[in-house]
Protein backbone atom coordinates (compact mmCIF):
# COMPACT_ATOMS: atom_id res chain seq x y z
CA UNK A 1 0.00 0.00 0.00
CA UNK A 2 2.85 2.38 0.86
CA UNK A 3 4.51 1.57 -2.45
CA UNK A 4 1.39 2.47 -4.33
CA UNK A 5 1.06 5.78 -2.47
CA UNK A 6 4.71 6.53 -3.15
CA UNK A 7 4.27 5.84 -6.83
CA UNK A 8 1.24 8.10 -6.91
CA UNK A 9 3.16 10.88 -5.22
CA UNK A 10 6.10 10.47 -7.61
CA UNK A 11 3.77 10.50 -10.59
CA UNK A 12 1.99 13.54 -9.24
CA UNK A 13 5.26 15.38 -8.65
CA UNK A 14 6.48 14.55 -12.15
CA UNK A 15 3.20 15.75 -13.65
CA UNK A 16 3.51 18.98 -11.69
CA UNK A 17 7.10 19.50 -12.86
CA UNK A 18 6.12 18.62 -16.41
CA UNK A 19 3.46 21.37 -16.34
CA UNK A 20 6.08 23.79 -15.01
CA UNK A 21 8.49 22.89 -17.81
CA UNK A 22 5.78 23.37 -20.40
CA UNK A 23 4.98 26.75 -18.86
CA UNK A 24 8.64 27.73 -19.18
CA UNK A 25 8.51 26.96 -22.87
CA UNK A 26 5.61 29.33 -23.36
CA UNK A 27 8.03 32.29 -23.22
CA UNK A 28 10.66 32.89 -25.87
CA UNK A 29 13.40 33.15 -23.24
CA UNK A 30 12.29 29.95 -21.48
CA UNK A 31 12.31 28.02 -24.73
CA UNK A 32 15.76 29.43 -25.61
CA UNK A 33 17.17 28.52 -22.19
CA UNK A 34 15.73 25.02 -22.29
CA UNK A 35 17.23 24.52 -25.75
CA UNK A 36 20.61 25.78 -24.52
CA UNK A 37 20.49 23.45 -21.47
CA UNK A 38 19.48 20.54 -23.68
CA UNK A 39 22.43 21.18 -26.00
CA UNK A 40 24.83 21.50 -23.08
CA UNK A 41 23.49 18.29 -21.52
CA UNK A 42 23.83 16.45 -24.80
CA UNK A 43 27.44 17.66 -25.18
CA UNK A 44 28.25 16.70 -21.62
CA UNK A 45 29.03 20.19 -20.47
CA UNK A 46 29.27 20.49 -16.66
CA UNK A 47 26.22 21.74 -14.78
CA UNK A 48 28.36 24.35 -13.07
CA UNK A 49 28.71 26.20 -16.35
CA UNK A 50 24.96 26.03 -16.88
CA UNK A 51 24.37 27.40 -13.38
CA UNK A 52 27.02 30.09 -13.91
CA UNK A 53 25.37 31.18 -17.15
CA UNK A 54 21.95 31.38 -15.51
CA UNK A 55 23.28 33.22 -12.45
CA UNK A 56 25.09 35.70 -14.73
CA UNK A 57 21.90 36.18 -16.73
CA UNK A 58 19.84 36.71 -13.59
CA UNK A 59 22.37 39.26 -12.29
CA UNK A 60 22.39 41.05 -15.63
CA UNK A 61 18.62 41.35 -15.49
CA UNK A 62 18.88 42.78 -12.01
CA UNK A 63 21.57 45.28 -13.04
CA UNK A 64 19.64 46.27 -16.16
CA UNK A 65 16.55 46.80 -14.03
CA UNK A 66 18.42 48.94 -11.51
CA UNK A 67 19.89 51.03 -14.35
CA UNK A 68 16.52 51.32 -16.04
CA UNK A 69 14.92 52.28 -12.70
CA UNK A 70 17.50 55.03 -12.20
CA UNK A 71 17.12 56.35 -15.74
CA UNK A 72 13.34 56.31 -15.50
CA UNK A 73 13.43 58.07 -12.15
CA UNK A 74 15.72 60.76 -13.54
CA UNK A 75 13.63 61.12 -16.69
CA UNK A 76 10.36 61.33 -14.76
CA UNK A 77 12.00 63.87 -12.43
CA UNK A 78 12.83 66.02 -15.44
CA UNK A 79 9.25 65.49 -16.65
CA UNK A 80 7.87 66.63 -13.31
CA UNK A 81 10.09 69.73 -13.37
CA UNK A 82 9.13 70.51 -16.99
CA UNK A 83 5.43 70.03 -16.33
CA UNK A 84 5.62 72.12 -13.16
CA UNK A 85 7.35 74.91 -15.11
CA UNK A 86 4.83 74.68 -17.95
CA UNK A 87 1.90 74.68 -15.51
CA UNK A 88 3.34 77.77 -13.83
CA UNK A 89 3.71 79.50 -17.20
CA UNK A 90 0.13 78.55 -18.05
CA UNK A 91 -1.06 79.88 -14.68
CA UNK A 92 0.82 83.14 -15.33
CA UNK A 93 -0.74 83.45 -18.79
CA UNK A 94 -4.20 82.75 -17.36
CA UNK A 95 -3.60 85.40 -14.70
CA UNK A 96 -2.45 87.79 -17.41
CA UNK A 97 -5.64 87.09 -19.38
CA UNK A 98 -7.69 87.84 -16.25
CA UNK A 99 -5.82 91.12 -15.78
CA UNK A 100 -6.28 92.10 -19.44
CA UNK A 101 -9.98 91.28 -19.33
CA UNK A 102 -10.33 93.32 -16.15
CA UNK A 103 -8.69 96.27 -17.92
CA UNK A 104 -11.07 95.87 -20.87
CA UNK A 105 -14.03 95.69 -18.49
CA UNK A 106 -12.77 98.90 -16.90
CA UNK A 107 -12.06 100.80 -20.14
CA UNK A 108 -15.09 99.75 -22.21
CA UNK A 109 -17.80 101.40 -20.03
CA UNK A 110 -15.77 104.62 -19.87
CA UNK A 111 -15.34 104.55 -23.66
CA UNK A 112 -19.06 103.94 -24.19
CA UNK A 113 -19.91 106.71 -21.73
CA UNK A 114 -17.66 109.16 -23.57
CA UNK A 115 -19.21 108.16 -26.89
CA UNK A 116 -22.66 108.82 -25.41
CA UNK A 117 -21.52 112.21 -24.13
CA UNK A 118 -20.14 113.04 -27.57
CA UNK A 119 -23.45 112.11 -29.20
CA UNK A 120 -25.26 114.38 -26.74
CA UNK A 121 -22.82 117.24 -27.38
CA UNK A 122 -23.20 116.83 -31.14
CA UNK A 123 -26.98 116.98 -30.75
CA UNK A 124 -26.59 120.11 -28.61
CA UNK A 125 -24.29 121.58 -31.24
CA UNK A 126 -26.82 120.84 -33.98
CA UNK A 127 -29.51 122.68 -32.02
CA UNK A 128 -27.20 125.61 -31.35
CA UNK A 129 -26.19 125.70 -35.01
CA UNK A 130 -29.88 125.83 -35.90
CA UNK A 131 -30.31 128.83 -33.59
CA UNK A 132 -27.25 130.50 -35.16
CA UNK A 133 -28.51 129.83 -38.67
CA UNK A 134 -31.97 131.14 -37.80
CA UNK A 135 -30.49 134.26 -36.19
CA UNK A 136 -28.23 134.80 -39.17
CA UNK A 137 -31.13 134.28 -41.59
CA UNK A 138 -33.27 136.74 -39.62
CA UNK A 139 -30.43 139.23 -39.59
CA UNK A 140 -29.94 138.82 -43.32
CA UNK A 141 -33.65 139.34 -43.82
CA UNK A 142 -33.51 142.50 -41.70
CA UNK A 143 -30.50 143.78 -43.62
CA UNK A 144 -32.13 143.01 -46.95
CA UNK A 145 -35.26 144.83 -45.77
CA UNK A 146 -33.17 147.84 -44.74
CA UNK A 147 -31.34 147.89 -48.10
CA UNK A 148 -34.70 147.73 -49.86
CA UNK A 149 -35.87 150.56 -47.63
CA UNK A 150 -32.73 152.50 -48.51
CA UNK A 151 -33.43 152.03 -52.22
CA UNK A 152 -37.03 153.19 -51.78
CA UNK A 153 -35.98 156.26 -49.77
CA UNK A 154 -33.32 157.00 -52.35
CA UNK A 155 -35.95 156.72 -55.06
CA UNK A 156 -38.32 159.14 -53.31
CA UNK A 157 -35.46 161.52 -52.53
CA UNK A 158 -34.46 161.46 -56.18
CA UNK A 159 -38.05 162.09 -57.25
CA UNK A 160 -38.30 165.12 -54.96
CA UNK A 161 -34.91 166.42 -56.03
CA UNK A 162 -35.86 166.04 -59.70
CA UNK A 163 -39.17 167.90 -59.13
CA UNK A 164 -37.34 170.76 -57.47
CA UNK A 165 -34.77 170.85 -60.26
CA UNK A 166 -37.50 171.15 -62.87
CA UNK A 167 -38.68 174.28 -61.08
CA UNK A 168 -35.27 175.77 -60.48
CA UNK A 169 -33.95 175.03 -63.95
CA UNK A 170 -36.96 176.38 -65.82
CA UNK A 171 -37.89 179.49 -63.82
CA UNK A 172 -35.93 182.52 -64.94
CA UNK A 173 -35.58 184.45 -61.68
CA UNK A 174 -32.15 183.70 -60.20
CA UNK A 175 -33.35 184.39 -56.65
CA UNK A 176 -36.68 182.74 -57.03
CA UNK A 177 -35.96 180.05 -54.48
CA UNK A 178 -34.11 182.25 -52.08
CA UNK A 179 -35.85 183.26 -48.89
CA UNK A 180 -37.19 186.81 -49.00
CA UNK A 181 -36.71 187.21 -52.78
CA UNK A 182 -38.82 190.09 -54.18
CA UNK A 183 -37.98 190.03 -57.87
CA UNK A 184 -40.68 189.04 -60.33
CA UNK A 185 -40.26 185.68 -62.09
CA UNK A 186 -41.17 184.43 -65.52
CA UNK A 187 -42.66 180.96 -65.74
CA UNK A 188 -44.72 178.93 -68.16
CA UNK A 189 -47.52 176.39 -67.66
CA UNK A 190 -45.26 173.77 -69.30
CA UNK A 191 -43.04 173.70 -66.20
CA UNK A 192 -45.96 172.76 -63.96
CA UNK A 193 -47.08 170.18 -66.47
CA UNK A 194 -43.62 168.55 -66.44
CA UNK A 195 -43.55 168.50 -62.64
CA UNK A 196 -47.07 167.06 -62.49
CA UNK A 197 -46.23 164.33 -65.02
CA UNK A 198 -42.99 163.48 -63.19
CA UNK A 199 -44.68 163.31 -59.78
CA UNK A 200 -47.67 161.29 -61.07
CA UNK A 201 -45.33 158.64 -62.49
CA UNK A 202 -43.33 158.54 -59.26
CA UNK A 203 -46.48 158.39 -57.12
CA UNK A 204 -47.71 155.34 -59.07
CA UNK A 205 -44.38 153.54 -58.60
CA UNK A 206 -44.10 154.57 -54.94
CA UNK A 207 -47.58 153.21 -54.27
CA UNK A 208 -46.30 149.73 -55.16
CA UNK A 209 -43.36 149.91 -52.74
CA UNK A 210 -43.35 148.51 -49.20
CA UNK A 211 -41.87 151.23 -47.06
CA UNK A 212 -42.81 154.55 -48.71
CA UNK A 213 -46.51 154.25 -49.49
CA UNK A 214 -47.23 157.21 -47.23
CA UNK A 215 -44.72 159.30 -49.17
CA UNK A 216 -46.34 158.03 -52.35
CA UNK A 217 -49.61 159.60 -51.27
CA UNK A 218 -47.83 162.88 -50.51
CA UNK A 219 -46.18 162.82 -53.95
CA UNK A 220 -49.60 162.18 -55.49
CA UNK A 221 -50.93 165.21 -53.62
CA UNK A 222 -48.05 167.38 -54.93
CA UNK A 223 -48.69 166.13 -58.44
CA UNK A 224 -52.30 167.29 -58.11
CA UNK A 225 -51.16 170.69 -56.82
CA UNK A 226 -48.69 171.03 -59.65
CA UNK A 227 -51.38 170.15 -62.14
CA UNK A 228 -53.76 172.75 -60.71
CA UNK A 229 -50.98 175.31 -60.61
CA UNK A 230 -51.09 175.38 -64.43
CA UNK A 231 -54.46 177.19 -64.22
CA UNK A 232 -53.64 179.38 -61.20
CA UNK A 233 -49.97 179.75 -61.66
CA UNK A 234 -48.44 182.37 -59.45
CA UNK A 235 -45.35 182.87 -57.40
CA UNK A 236 -46.99 182.13 -54.08
CA UNK A 237 -48.47 178.83 -55.19
CA UNK A 238 -45.20 177.78 -56.76
CA UNK A 239 -43.36 178.66 -53.56
CA UNK A 240 -45.75 176.53 -51.58
CA UNK A 241 -45.15 173.54 -53.85
CA UNK A 242 -41.40 173.93 -53.56
CA UNK A 243 -41.67 174.37 -49.79
CA UNK A 244 -43.78 171.24 -49.68
CA UNK A 245 -41.06 169.40 -51.62
CA UNK A 246 -38.43 170.64 -49.15
CA UNK A 247 -40.59 169.67 -46.14
CA UNK A 248 -41.23 166.25 -47.60
CA UNK A 249 -37.49 165.80 -48.28
CA UNK A 250 -36.77 166.69 -44.64
CA UNK A 251 -39.37 164.20 -43.42
CA UNK A 252 -37.88 161.61 -45.74
CA UNK A 253 -34.41 162.25 -44.35
CA UNK A 254 -35.70 162.02 -40.79
CA UNK A 255 -37.55 158.80 -41.57
CA UNK A 256 -34.44 157.32 -43.17
CA UNK A 257 -32.30 158.44 -40.22
CA UNK A 258 -34.73 156.64 -37.91
CA UNK A 259 -34.64 153.55 -40.12
CA UNK A 260 -30.83 153.64 -40.14
CA UNK A 261 -30.70 153.96 -36.34
CA UNK A 262 -33.15 151.08 -36.03
CA UNK A 263 -30.96 149.04 -38.39
CA UNK A 264 -27.86 149.93 -36.40
CA UNK A 265 -29.59 148.87 -33.17
CA UNK A 266 -30.67 145.56 -34.76
CA UNK A 267 -27.16 145.01 -36.09
CA UNK A 268 -25.58 145.69 -32.70
CA UNK A 269 -28.10 143.45 -30.94
CA UNK A 270 -27.38 140.67 -33.47
CA UNK A 271 -23.63 141.07 -33.08
CA UNK A 272 -23.91 140.85 -29.30
CA UNK A 273 -26.25 137.86 -29.53
CA UNK A 274 -24.07 136.24 -32.17
CA UNK A 275 -21.01 136.74 -29.95
CA UNK A 276 -22.76 134.83 -27.16
CA UNK A 277 -23.83 132.09 -29.57
CA UNK A 278 -20.32 131.79 -30.99
CA UNK A 279 -18.91 131.63 -27.47
CA UNK A 280 -21.28 128.77 -26.69
CA UNK A 281 -20.36 127.11 -29.99
CA UNK A 282 -16.66 127.43 -29.20
CA UNK A 283 -17.25 125.83 -25.81
CA UNK A 284 -19.17 122.98 -27.46
CA UNK A 285 -16.50 122.49 -30.11
CA UNK A 286 -13.83 122.43 -27.41
CA UNK A 287 -15.83 119.92 -25.35
CA UNK A 288 -16.43 117.75 -28.41
CA UNK A 289 -12.74 117.91 -29.36
CA UNK A 290 -11.76 116.90 -25.83
CA UNK A 291 -14.27 114.04 -25.87
CA UNK A 292 -13.02 112.86 -29.27
CA UNK A 293 -9.44 112.91 -27.99
CA UNK A 294 -10.48 110.93 -24.90
CA UNK A 295 -12.49 108.49 -27.03
CA UNK A 296 -9.54 107.99 -29.37
CA UNK A 297 -7.20 107.45 -26.43
CA UNK A 298 -9.59 104.93 -24.88
CA UNK A 299 -10.10 103.23 -28.26
CA UNK A 300 -6.32 102.97 -28.68
CA UNK A 301 -5.97 101.50 -25.20
CA UNK A 302 -8.79 99.03 -25.88
CA UNK A 303 -7.26 98.02 -29.21
CA UNK A 304 -3.85 97.53 -27.61
CA UNK A 305 -5.37 95.55 -24.74
CA UNK A 306 -7.38 93.36 -27.12
CA UNK A 307 -4.23 92.79 -29.17
CA UNK A 308 -2.33 91.84 -26.03
CA UNK A 309 -5.17 89.55 -25.02
CA UNK A 310 -5.17 87.85 -28.44
CA UNK A 311 -1.39 87.43 -28.25
CA UNK A 312 -1.69 86.11 -24.70
CA UNK A 313 -4.44 83.68 -25.78
CA UNK A 314 -2.24 82.39 -28.62
CA UNK A 315 0.68 81.92 -26.23
CA UNK A 316 -1.62 80.20 -23.73
CA UNK A 317 -2.90 77.83 -26.40
CA UNK A 318 0.63 77.05 -27.58
CA UNK A 319 1.90 76.60 -24.02
CA UNK A 320 -1.05 74.34 -23.15
CA UNK A 321 -0.36 72.24 -26.23
CA UNK A 322 3.33 72.09 -25.27
CA UNK A 323 2.40 70.90 -21.78
CA UNK A 324 -0.03 68.29 -23.12
CA UNK A 325 2.60 67.04 -25.57
CA UNK A 326 5.21 66.87 -22.82
CA UNK A 327 2.79 65.07 -20.50
CA UNK A 328 1.97 62.57 -23.24
CA UNK A 329 5.69 62.07 -23.87
CA UNK A 330 6.31 61.46 -20.16
CA UNK A 331 3.33 59.13 -19.87
CA UNK A 332 4.50 57.20 -22.92
CA UNK A 333 7.99 56.90 -21.40
CA UNK A 334 6.47 55.67 -18.12
CA UNK A 335 4.32 53.17 -20.00
CA UNK A 336 7.32 51.87 -21.97
CA UNK A 337 9.36 51.66 -18.75
CA UNK A 338 6.60 49.65 -17.10
CA UNK A 339 6.41 47.38 -20.14
CA UNK A 340 10.17 46.81 -20.01
CA UNK A 341 10.04 46.18 -16.28
CA UNK A 342 7.21 43.70 -16.64
CA UNK A 343 9.02 41.92 -19.46
CA UNK A 344 12.29 41.95 -17.56
CA UNK A 345 10.59 40.72 -14.37
CA UNK A 346 9.06 37.90 -16.40
CA UNK A 347 12.40 36.96 -17.92
CA UNK A 348 14.12 37.15 -14.56
CA UNK A 349 11.40 34.98 -13.01
CA UNK A 350 11.87 32.48 -15.85
CA UNK A 351 15.63 32.30 -15.11
CA UNK A 352 14.95 32.03 -11.37
CA UNK A 353 12.38 29.24 -11.93
CA UNK A 354 14.78 27.40 -14.19
CA UNK A 355 17.56 27.66 -11.60
CA UNK A 356 15.13 26.29 -9.02
CA UNK A 357 14.26 23.36 -11.27
CA UNK A 358 17.93 22.64 -11.90
CA UNK A 359 18.54 22.63 -8.17
CA UNK A 360 15.54 20.55 -7.16
CA UNK A 361 14.13 18.78 -10.22
CA UNK A 362 17.19 17.97 -12.35
CA UNK A 363 16.10 14.37 -12.92
CA UNK A 364 12.62 15.36 -14.09
CA UNK A 365 14.10 18.12 -16.31
CA UNK A 366 16.50 15.66 -17.98
CA UNK A 367 13.68 13.20 -18.46
CA UNK A 368 11.44 15.97 -19.92
CA UNK A 369 14.19 16.98 -22.37
CA UNK A 370 14.85 13.35 -23.28
CA UNK A 371 11.13 12.76 -23.88
CA UNK A 372 10.94 15.82 -26.16
CA UNK A 373 14.05 14.79 -28.13
CA UNK A 374 12.81 11.23 -28.42
CA UNK A 375 9.50 12.53 -29.71
CA UNK A 376 11.40 14.32 -32.50
CA UNK A 377 11.05 17.87 -31.14
CA UNK A 378 13.54 19.81 -33.24
CA UNK A 379 13.41 22.82 -30.88
CA UNK A 380 15.28 20.86 -28.21
CA UNK A 381 17.67 18.96 -30.49
CA UNK A 382 20.88 20.08 -32.11
From TrEMBL:
Cleavable signal peptide: 1-15
Coiled coil: 83-152, 234-308
Protein name in UniProt: Trichocyst matrix protein
Keyword Signal: yes
Alphabetical UniProt keywords: Coiled coil, Signal
